[in-house]
From TrEMBL:
One Pfam family in the UniProt entry: adh_short
Protein name: SDR family oxidoreductase
Lineage: Bacteria, Pseudomonadati, Bacteroidota, Saprospiria, Saprospirales
Family listed: Belongs to the short-chain dehydrogenases/reductases (SDR) family.
Protein keywords: Oxidoreductase
Cellular component, GO annotation: membrane
GO MF term set: oxidoreductase activity
Length: 238
């Protein structure tokens, strides 16, 4: 990615949980972090917290990843300011309990956010990475994309779809210098896990820092090494 040049990392769903932790970690190691999310109050709070740690001040954009027009505007603005995006972390997503008891509305929202939204962001960013002839895309998927858990069929379906999209991108883009990795963690210690009813105590869950360290390791691999997906599980929920 070129030593000595400021590296640009775009993180969707960057104001809380996994996205916030990844943004903080990348800012710590010298990236210009760009956060997106739907709520400006949460984005501002995260930016302030990162700055208070002495790291490069992140930029933020209010973004609903189901809005293709707004995605295009956001990526165009980033390209105009920085000329490139080195890392895309497709992290924004939602969780809903239920399988056939899900309402049609909830099922469609799961697919619209967890698959279509991720697709739209990648669709907007990849042309820029192709012009750069470099880049790294991390799709934050879930262990629910590897196991069809009972009671969460809608969520599992959306994440299996994202995992399939990620593998297709991996096979299409890696040969031209753009790496793609699907991150498939089990229960992570976040507010979303609390709302989803995680059976694990917070200390028994994957920590958000574990995901940052995973990404940091992947970013430091040589150009000759590529990783399609990483599945991270909990000792108590194998």
């Amino acid at each position: 990615m070129g030593k000595g040049r400021l590296k640009i990392a775009l993180i969707t769903g960057g104001s809380k949980g996994i996205g916030k932790a990844l943004g903080t970690g990348l800012a710590k190691v010298g990236y210009q972090v760009i956060l997106t999310g739907r709520h400006e109050k949460d984005l501002k709070k995260t930016v302030q917290e990162i700055v208070s740690l002495g790291y490069q001040k992140p930029i933020y954009y209010i973004l609903d990843i189901t809005n293709s027009g707004l995605i295009t505007q956001t990526i165009d603005a980033i390209a105009a300011q920085f000329g490139r995006i080195d890392v895309l972390i497709n992290n924004a997503g939602i969780h809903r309990k239920g399988t056939l008891d899900l309402s049609e509305k909830d099922f469609r929202e799961l697919l619209e956010t967890n698959i279509t939204g991720q697709f739209l962001v990648a669709q907007a960013v990849v042309p820029l990475m192709k012009r750069q002839r470099s880049g790294y895309i991390f799709n934050v998927v879930s262990r629910s994309a590897t196991v069809g858990f009972p009671g969460t069929g809608g969520y599992c379906a959306s994440k299996w779809g994202l995992r399939g999209l990620s593998e297709s991108l991996y096979r299409e883009l890696t040969p031209i210098g753009i790496k793609v990795t699907a991150l498939c963690p089990a229960w992570v210690d976040t507010d979303m896990a609390n709302r989803a009813g995680s059976p694990l105590a917070p200390e028994d869950r994957i920590q958000t820092q574990d995901l940052f360290h995973t990404i940091e390791w992947l970013l430091n691999l040589s150009d000759g090494a590529c990783v399609k997906e990483v599945v991270i599980t909990n000792p108590l929920s194998l």
